[in-house]
Amino acid sequence: MNLAEKIKQKYSSMVLEATAIAGGDPTIVAKKETIKNLMTALRDDVDFQFNVLMDLFGVDYLFWEEKEKRFEVVYNIYSISKKHRLFVKVPVKETDAALDSVTDVWPAANWFEREVWDMFGIRFNGHPNLKRILMYEEFKGHPLRKDYPYNKRQPLIGPMH
Amino acid sequence: MGAVAEGGVNLEKFGFMTTKLNDAIGWARKFSIFQYPFVTACCGMEYMATACAHYDVDRFGAGFPRFSPRQADVLFVVGTISQKMAPVLKKIYDQMCEPKWVVAFGVCTCTGGFYDNYATVMGIDHIIPVDVYIPGCPPRPENVLDGLMKLQDKIQNQKQEV
Ligand code: SF4
């Protein structure tokens, strides 16, 4: 039984599905409501010991017919002691684009979550300082959403189009 | 030996040289360009290549980068300028003392280059006036030197404010 299946068995109430992504890393799809509990458990569980958050990012599946929910937030976590890696995907609805912050679990999540907020407009409840990190505060919209026109100009300085 | 009008004195016989004040100041200014390199992106490598011994901008009197805008004459804007950086660039320009010139180094600064997106300023001339545009992605050092010489011509031939 691989890692993803083990986790699914142990935390079946919080995990929807165990799969693998291209490349073969074990992946689970988790429920949005309980994400913080699941992450805390994965960090503290002696069997898993996921003590590093390596990456956290958003994905916009606007043009994917087969996806029910528009966004996904993906966590890439790693255990230094166990030497194993896990991807956790959390589907997020467009109408309710918010989920719990994991900054209390791994402080490294702070800037990653700000980036996801900046680029995709997904809010993180309980984040200590959720403001834009790459774009300027006056910027309107979230540029990595697939319906944001890539060449739309809204400059601080210069002509408006 | 130039023709000397009747009653005039042939100055060159005495080892003099005559010029106009405007030209003299222009000559002095064009060979003492203190630059402020505002380097933000990949063009910076080519700027370094130009500035170092192989191409040696010191031959043109421009070998002395100042990292304070107050002591600089020429603002070299080298590399992509994002919208978030734009107010900083404007402030740097405003801090420079007159007379001052601006060189746009690389297509990113000239026109935005291949960036056509929400984050990039489409040419720094939206923000500040530019004297010389040096296109290229990045421009070859020869191209930069050509631009520098054009700037020198411009400095020499303009009306010198003192
Ligand atoms: S012009 Fe080309 S080399 Fe220069 S900063 Fe832009 S992308 Fe980089």
Folded structure, characterized:
The complex is a heterodimer of chains A (161) and B (162). Chain A is α/β, with parallel strands linked by helices. Helices cover 19% and strands 27% of the residues of chain A. Chain A is built from 3 helices and 7 strands. A 5-stranded mixed beta sheet of chain A has the order 1-2-5-4-3. In chain A, strands 6-7 form a two-stranded parallel sheet. In chain A, strand 1 and strand 2 form a beta hairpin. Chain A is globular, with a radius of gyration of 17 Å. The model of chain A has no long low-confidence stretch (mean pLDDT 88). Chain B has one domain (34-155): 3-Layer(aba) Sandwich (Rossmann fold), CATH 3.40.50. Helix content of chain B is 31%, strand content 13%. Chain B has a 5-stranded parallel beta sheet with strand order 2-1-3-4-5. The model of chain B has no long low-confidence stretch (mean pLDDT 87). The A-B interface holds A 134-136, 139, 143, 148, 150-159 and B 83-84, 86-87, 90, 116-119, 121-122, 126-127. The site of iron/sulfur cluster has 11 residues of chain B, from helix 4.
Using brief descriptors, characterize the structure shown:
heterodimer, A: alpha/beta, Beta Polymerase, domain 2, two-stranded parallel ribbon, B: 162 residues, alpha/beta, 5 helices, 31% helix
The low-confidence runs of chain A, each spanning 5 or more residues with pLDDT under 50, are: none
Helix/sheet category of chain A? alpha/beta
Named CATH topology of the domain at 3-96 in chain A: Beta Polymerase, domain 2
Helix count from the secondary structure assignment of chain B: 5
The kinds of small molecule bound in this structure are: iron/sulfur cluster
CATH C-level class of the domain at 3-96 in chain A: Alpha Beta
Largest sheet data of chain B: 5 strands, parallel
Q: List the strand order in the largest sheet of chain B.
A: 2-1-3-4-5
Number of strands of chain B: 5
Mind telling me which CATH architecture of chain B this is?
3-Layer(aba) Sandwich
Order of helices and strands of chain A: HEEHEEEEHE
Mean pLDDT of chain A: 88
Helix content class of chain B: 25-40%
Low-confidence stretches of chain B: none
Enumerate the strands of the largest sheet of chain A in spatial order, edge to edge or round the barrel.
1-2-5-4-3
Shape verdict of chain A:
globular
Dominant shape of chain B: elongated
Give me the Rg of chain A, rounded.
Answer: 17 Å
